[in-house]
Design a protein that fits this description.
The complex is a heterodimer. By secondary structure, chain A is mostly helical. Chain A contains 12 helices and 4 strands, in the order ααββαααββααααααα. In chain A, a hairpin with a 7-residue loop joins strand 3 (169-172) and strand 4 (180-183). In chain A, helix 6 (184-206) packs antiparallel against helix 9 (230-252) and helix 10 (262-277) runs parallel beside helix 12 (310-325). Chain B contains 13 helices and 17 strands. In chain B, strand 1, helix 2 (57-74) and strand 2 (100-107) form a beta-alpha-beta unit. The chains are: A mainly alpha, B alpha/beta. At the A-B interface, helix 1, strand 4 and helix 11 of A face strand 7, helix 7, helix 8, helix 9 and helix 10 of B.
């Protein structure tokens, strides 16, 4: 029983990342009609915002310690943290320890700038081009971005740990008499994603801006005829989608050490999530993200593993079945991406 | 002319016939040359085939640094590095056989097809007389086959699968790096001594040739010490999140987790295992332990604090204190400002050994060079007395058992040497069942 619950938690955790990325993809597709294959790169850039802030906060100055030797036998260069020397070991240490949560704020301006630059600088020129062109150009952009990150940060994964207080395992299932331990940070990630998803939905549902965007998603021309500059709002939505993907990456950094390729690892699966959820459907993207995350998790579990590699293809198998039985996906609407 | 003979038909037939005739000559030496890419000018070209992009690019970069250093030393520049400590004194610092050493590089991308394409290009277009390097067993086996067909020597880089010098061994291929069997033979006594002989091990294994053979080797070696293998789960190479594979370990009754993973897989699976509290877990009154049978410095740096206290094995490490290691670390450190990795050491040593074999054989002919390398015993290259066994072209030398350092003083100080396992302990018969199934075959010079 406890293993079953653990696999559900694993699935929700994986699903959180899928849902956040797919949510951004759907926002961009729903508003701008663009199939953005560079969206995984935004997730990766978000993770590297964590890495960058961690490096900034851990910036150090070098002093020479003549009593110790380096690998060449020269006096050892000892690094000391600026934070700790400025604020003392306790406060300075705490600031650096909480670099990942702090990166949520740090990433906002970066992701907005990257998102707007991406949309205004490149993608807007492809609004009226076929989807195949959009896929090619955004995929090319994704490769360029990941190679830039590799050139700057190297190809090795970079450990970016969660705060010490959230790095332990949470004891769950006590009231059920079950022994369930689960990494605290993964729980944080799940609840964080729920909060972000809830925030995006509330923004679209309860603000005037959101109402206009939803109206634009439903009928862009009519909204334009009413004198509303819907393009500008859609650019803002692109930036919001970039921030959502970036936050997904920021908080994912302690789960798996960021590397330049991580965006590509998530991109294809997230697209499948969007298609299964229904093109243009925000609730569909979120529901499919969690559903496919759980399915993937159970497919990795030996007890349910009918054959090796099932976990690698389960999402695609389910996608085929769903699209055969519900061609518009779980919550897709008529007329979206249809001639 | 019959009515069936059309213009289209003639063109198709011509193309097929042309391709058919061309295939056998792709890797054949020109009529004037005695063997593939026989150097005729004042220089000789070596081909360094390493991952320059992709997940192992950092490792490839370090291999490339070491190979460039080796070329410098062969051409008489720099301080000579390990050429000063090498027991063979055939090399004079004037290139190889009096020819200046030049090199070309290829990018394996850690993909077999890309690695074969880059090796083929270096052989056909650049005239490389040997291929050196790489960071994957799948790649090594693929390129080794190509070099056998092409008639050039292949010195494999970081390849740890038993198959490279087992069922997939080739007469033109040589491996300086150790293998899965050797890791098992070195690790098992240390693990037994550190954690006891009554242990239940759960294996997570990368689902390809290297993972399979390493798991088989570690399981056999630890079971011989009294350990029980509870389970072995194959994980796809493309996996990034191992949480679904780690959670079944929690209630499996296992008290040791063996991660037969390398590179990004290892960094992620170890990180996930630590996240799930395995290192702090107590099972049946024993502390839960994690073992990573194959370590590298770059991988340990990627795993960060997670490697603390975790035992594994290595081919070589810059912290060794023999004269060869000291000479290489000094040379490499002064040029690049960092200690060399064990894959850098392997590629450096292989370049020097290839050059030395050419000098001793008096030729670049791969069959002559192969003969000079077969059964060659030497010292001064960092692992004590070393043998390139003639029967399978596997190198035999001391193996290092490593442990993740508890309080590293800097970014290069991640691992400590726990034990230097003597060569005799990791040797095995050429017909050992784990290496059965292949034939070395005959050397191919391409003539």
């Amino acid at each position: 029983m406890s293993e079953f619950i653990l696999q559900i938690l694993n699935g929700l955790d994986k699903g959180s990342a899928y849902a956040l990325i797919a949510l951004g993809l759907t926002l961009i597709f729903g508003t701008l009609g663009v199939v953005n294959f560079a969206h995984g790169a935004l997730f990766m850039i978000g993770a590297f915002c964590s890495v960058t802030l961690s490096r900034i906060l851990n910036a150090s100055y070098v002093t020479i310690d003549p009593t110790q030797k380096d690998f060449l036998g020269n006096p050892l260069k000892v690094k000391s943290s600026y934070m700790e020397s400025w604020f003392g070991p306790e406060v300075g240490g705490a600031i650096t320890d909480w670099s990942v949560p702090l990166a949520i704020l740090f990433s906002i301006p970066i992701m907005i700038v990257v998102g707007i630059a991406m949309e205004r600088g490149l993608i807007k020129h492809f609004y009226k081009r076929p989807h195949a062109d959009q896929i090619l150009v955004t995929f090319g952009l994704a490769i360029i971005l990941q190679e830039l990150v590799r050139g700057f940060y190297g190809a090795n994964p970079i450990q970016t740990p969660a705060p010490e207080a959230l790095s332990s395992v949470a004891q769950l299932g006590g009231s059920l008499g079950l022994e369930i331990v689960y990494p605290a940070w993964r729980m944080v990630y799940f609840f964080f994603s729920l909060a972000v998803i809830g925030g995006v939905f509330a923004f679209l549902r309860f603000t005037t801006f959101g109402m206009v965007v939803r109206a634009g998603m439903a009928d862009r021309e009519t909204v334009g005829l009413m004198g509303i500059n819907i393009d500008r709002r859609f650019t803002v939505m692109f930036a919001i989608a970039a921030v959502v993907a970036g936050w997904a990456g920021v908080m994912y950094a302690p789960i798996n050490a960021p590397n330049y390729h991580m965006g590509m690892d998530f991109l294809v699966l997230s697209f499948v999530v969007v298609v299964v959820g229904g093109m243009g459907s925000l609730p569909g993207a979120v529901a499919a993200g969690f559903l496919l995350g759980i399915l993937e998790s159970f497919a990795s579990w030996e007890r349910f593993k009918i054959f090796d590699g099932l976990d690698q293809i389960i999402i695609y198998l389910v996608a085929i079945i769903i699209l055969l039985t519900r061609p518009r996906g779980l919550m897709g609407k008529k007329g979206v991406m249809e001639d | 002319m019959t009515k069936n003979l059309t213009r289209r038909g003639v063109l198709k037939s011509g193309a097929v016939a042309g391709a058919g005739l061309a295939v056998p000559t792709i890797f054949t030496a020109s009529s004037a040359a005695a063997y593939t890419n026989e150097p005729t000018g004042s220089s000789v070209t070596l081909g360094f085939n390493v991952p320059q992009t992709g997940p192992y690019a950092e490792e490839g970069l370090d291999e490339l640094r070491a190979q460039e250093l080796a070329v410098e030393h062969l051409n008489g520049m720099g301080d000579g590095g390990m050429m000063n400590t090498f027991s063979s004194k055939a090399l004079k610092g004037n290139g190889i056989l009096g020819k200046k050493v030049e090199f070309v590089t290829g990018d394996t991308q850690t993909k077999s097809d890309a690695a074969r394409a880059s090796a083929k290009s270096m052989i056909e277009k650049d005239g490389a007389v040997m291929i050196n390097g790489g960071s994957s067993s799948g790649v090594a086996i693929a390129v080794q086959g190509l070099c056998q067909d092409a008639g050039v020597i292949f010195m494999a880089g970081l390849t740890h699968s038993n198959d490279t010098t087992g069922k997939d061994k080739k007469a033109n291929g040589f491996r300086h790096f150790f293998n899965g069997y050797m890791s098992g033979a070195a690790l098992a006594p240390v693990l037994s001594s550190a954690y006891g002989s009554d242990r239940n091990a759960y294996h997570l294994t990368a689902d390809y040739t290297w993972g399979w053979t390493q798991q088989e080797s570690i399981a056999a070696a630890t079971e011989a010490m009294g350990w029980n293998t509870v389970n072995n789960v194959l994980t796809p190479l493309a996996s990034t999140d191992f949480s679904s594979y780690i959670t079944p370990v929690l209630n499996s009754g296992a008290d040791v987790l063996v991660l037969n993973h390398y590179g990004g897989n290892m960094v992620n699976s170890l990180t996930n295992a630590i996240q799930f509290g395995l290192r702090d877990k107590v099972v049946n009154g024993k502390n839960f332990e994690i073992v990573v049978p194959l370590y590298s410095e770059l991988m340990a740096a990627g795993a960060g604090k997670n490697v603390e206290g975790v035992i594994g094995s290595m081919n070589w490490n810059w912290q060794l204190t023999d004269e060869g290691t000291k000479a290489f670390v000094k040379s490499f450190g002064e040029k690049y400002g960092r200690p060399p990795s064990n894959s850098a050491h392997t590629c450096y040593v292989q370049t020097i050994l290839y050059a030395d074999a050419c000098e001793r054989a008096g030729t670049f002919n791969p069959c002559g060079v192969g003969e000079a390398l077969e059964g060659f015993e030497f010292d001064g290259m960092g692992n004590g007395p070393t043998l390139y066994r003639a029967e399978d072209h596997q190198c035999f030398k001391d193996v290092l058992v490593m442990k993740g350092k508890e309080n590293p003083s800097n970014e290069y100080d991640t691992l400590q040497i726990l034990e230097v396992t003597p060569r005799a302990q990791v040797e095995y018969a050429p017909d050992h069942p784990m290496f059965a199934g292949g034939e070395l075959g005959a050397c191919n010079s391409g003539a």
